Structure formats: structure tokens, C-alpha cells
């Protein structure tokens, strides 16, 4: 029987207007300490964001979303947060915030392969499949 590993994940959400409390799922960040795994998948959904908030600064949203995978990877150009340990980076990435990029509560699970479950979660929770 393959070894199972615990993981935690959160969904990244773009909240164009905090007052309206509407959001679009834009990514998933997943941490599996047993496998030394921290990664993130993001998708910039310009058409959906424009429909929700025509005046939104899309380039600013894109920059913020692109920072998540860079912090996960520990990219030195991603600033001081990227130099923290994997666990500390995950904690920082999933910390509650009231800005236009927010995260869901952290959820847990078990899997054989963290990269595969990240792809599965991303496909199920973020990808719109042509919508």
C-alpha cells in the first residue's frame, strides 16, 4: 500500500470589491511537510474579473497572484517572505487578509502525491473549463 501524507491547502480568491463580498477562485496553495512540498497554482481570469468589476486594475491583480508561486518556490527576488522556512511561508500565504487577494480557510487531507492533489484541487476549484 502506498504511503499517505497529510497536507493543508487554501484557495486563493480575487475579491475586486471587498464591500460586495464577491470573489473569483484564482488559485490553490498546498503544503505537505512530510514531502517537503509547498507549491501553488494560479489562473488569471481576466474576462470573469472584468465582468465582476470593470474598473479593476487587472495588472495589479496579476502581479499579486504571480507573487504566490514565487514565494512558494522560495524565489530570492520575491522578497524577505520567500526566505522563510516552508512552514512559515505557507502560514504567511494563507494568513487572513482584507485586501483584493484573500484566502479561504485552510483545509486538510491525505494523499499519496502532493503535486497530483494540487492539480486535482486546482482543476476542481479554480479552472472554469471554458466558462
Provide the structure class. Answer: alpha+beta
Mean pLDDT reading? 93
Number of helices: 4
Low-confidence stretches: none
Strand content: 25-35%
Give a nutshell description of this structure.
The chain is α+β, with helices and mostly antiparallel strands and 131 residues long.
Task: Name the features.
131 residues, alpha+beta, 4 helices, 5 strands
What this model shows, in words?
With 131 residues, the chain is of the alpha+beta class. It has one domain (5-125). It is built from four helices and five strands. Strands 1, 2, 3, 4 and 5 form a five-stranded antiparallel beta sheet that branches. Strand 2 (24-32) and strand 3 form a beta hairpin. The longest helix is centred in the middle third of the chain and has 16 residues, at 58-73.
SSE diagram, text form:
Layout: E1 5-14, E2 24-32, E3 37-42, H1 46-52, H2 58-73, H3 86-93, E4 101-103, E5 107-111, H4 114-125
Antiparallel strand pairs: 1-2, 1-4, 1-5, 2-3
Amino acid at each position: 500500500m502506498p504511503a499517505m501524507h497529510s497536507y493543508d491547502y487554501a484557495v486563493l480568491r480575487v475579491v475586486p470589491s471587498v464591500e460586495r463580498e464577491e470573489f473569483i477562485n484564482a488559485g490553490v496553495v498546498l503544503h505537505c511537510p512530510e514531502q517537503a512540498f509547498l507549491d501553488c497554482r494560479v489562473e488569471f481570469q481576466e474576462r470573469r474579473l472584468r465582468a465582476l468589476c470593470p474598473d479593476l486594475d487587472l495588472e495589479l491583480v496579476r502581479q499579486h497572484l504571480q507573487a504566490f508561486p514565487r514565494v512558494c518556490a522560495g524565489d530570492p527576488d520575491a522578497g524577505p517572505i520567500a526566505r522563510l522556512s516552508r512552514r512559515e511561508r505557507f502560514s504567511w500565504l494563507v494568513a487572513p487578509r482584507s485586501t483584493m487577494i484573500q484566502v479561504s480557510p485552510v483545509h486538510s487531507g491525505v494523499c499519496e502525491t502532493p503535486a497530483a492533489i494540487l492539480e486535482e484541487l486546482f482543476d476542481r476549484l479554480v479552472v472554469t473549463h471554458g466558462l
